[in-house]
Every structure is written in structure tokens, then in C-alpha cells.
Amino acid sequence: MLKKWKIRWVENQIWVAICCTALAFFIQINLNKININLLIIQFLATLSMYKLAVHSQQINFKIFSFHILLPGLLAAIIGFVYLKTETLLLLAFLAVLSLQYSFPLLGKNFRKIQRLKIFIIASIWASSIVFLPILDSGELIGIQTLLLWVSIFLFVLAISIPFDWRDSDSDAAELKTLPQELGKEQSLKLANRVLVLSILFFILAQETIVNSFIFSFLLTVVLASFLFKKSSKFSKKYFVSFWVEILSAMPLLIYGMLQLLNQKIF
After folding, report:
1. Do 118 and 164 meet the contact criterion of CB atoms below 8 Å apart?
2. What is the model's pTM?
3. Mean pLDDT of 164-184
4. CA 97 to CA 60: how far, in whole Å?
5. DSSP per-residue codes, 8-47
6. Which of 73, 122, 136, 235 could lock 156 by a disulfide, CB 3.0 to 4.6 Å apart?
7. What angle do CA 35, 205, 120 make, to 5 degrees?
8. Rounded to 5 degrees, what are φ and ψ at 265?
9. What is the pLDDT of residue 16?
10. Which residues of 139-168 are buried (b: 16+ CB within 10 A; e: fewer)?
11. Mean pLDDT of 193-214
12. Which residues have CB under 8 Å from 124's CB, separation 6+?
């Protein structure tokens, strides 16, 4: 049973915004490109876009102006003041993709296109988390950056499958999500295989094959596999939204604990 504050955070999309920002911070530390402005934008933009997706069918003025427009506007202002032009252009492109997910700006919205939903989500998360700090540092996107992008894309893709698993009975059959196409259990097996690929690409993206970042990401993948075995709880209202979502924040939490242990030991 989740405490009331946790339920409020989940329902108000604060939890997903925190977890996404935590994953972005972990990658920034890994890249040695910590950018607080980007992290604030990441949090505000995620909060705004997820609220928009949730309320897209029933937006009223209060919800739109305060809960959606305000955080999005703050993110835009911070971006215009502090970010480089190249970063802003990519950010604007990702914002359009995010809006297209909920609204038919350029034809049918992405949410209603067969098999596409979680691939779009994973692409937006991976691009904002990996490419934005590289571009804003003035560096070019190289092979290691691309490998890291693939790793985060696969990781987000894998942990998104339980959300489709949870929604598979209520989603329209024509969406053809992975659990609808493969079956619930087979889709979770696929998620585990994708997680293995994500850690392999993460290792390839590192300069050394043994470091705290790899251990943190590897342990997160192990925890994810363990959670996927709890599929009987996926139908519970907040299990996936809280416990599966927190997997995005686990690499940072584990890395932080390792740093604290190292300080105490040495």
C-alpha cells in the first residue's frame, strides 16, 4: 500500500519527472557534463508533457494553464536564457514529438499508431538524456555517445513494456502493443532480453569495462528483471507507476550509495 504522498506524486506525474531527471543526472555524471539548467528543464518538461498526455482528452483552463502550461513555459524560458542554439533546436524538436504523441499536430497522434508508442517514448527519453548535455557542452556526437544513446533507448524501452502489459486489456486492440501482439509473458521475456542488450551497449560506451557506472547500471538491470517476475502485481493500480518507474532513478541512487561507501572506506 502506497502512502498518500506517493499516490499524489504518481497521479500528478511528479514521480515520473523525478525518475527521468535522476536518470538524466546519472548520465551527465557519467559523461562528466553536469548541467543543472538542463536537469531543471528535464524535470519541468517531463512534468508538463506527461500531464498533457494524461489530460489530453479532458483539458480545462485550470489544468492547462497551471499544471501544463506553467512548467512548460518555465522550461522554455530557462532554455532560451541558458542553453546553446543547437541544444534549443533539439529540445524544440523533442517537444514537437512529445506534443505529437498526445495530439494530431501532423496527422494521427503517435499514441494511436500501431506498435509505435513505446518506441517514441524511448527515443525522446534517450535523446533528451544523452544528446542534450553533449550538444550544450559544444562537443560533437561521437561513437561512444551513440552507443550510450542505444543503451538508454533499450533500457527505457524495456521498462516501458510493463506499462503496456498493465494497459493491454484496456488498450484498443488495433494499437497492437507488444503484450497484445506477443502475449503478456512473452513480452516480459523480450523486455529481459532488451535489458541485457542495454547493459552490453552501456559497457561498450564506457572508457573502462570496470567502473561504478557499469556496476550501478548492471545492478539496476538485475533489479528490473526481479521486478518483472512480479507480473501478477502489474494490474494493481500503482505498482507499475511507482515501482517500475523508480528503475529510472536506480542507477543514480546506487551510484550515490557507492560513492558514500567509498568515502567511508577510504
Report:
1. yes
2. 0.90
3. 74
4. 22
5. HHHHTTHHHHHHHHHHHHHHHHHHT---HHHHHHHHHHHH
6. 122
7. 70
8. -75, -40
9. 92
10. eeeeeebebbbbbbbbbbbbbbbbbbbbbb
11. 93
12. 94, 97, 98, 101
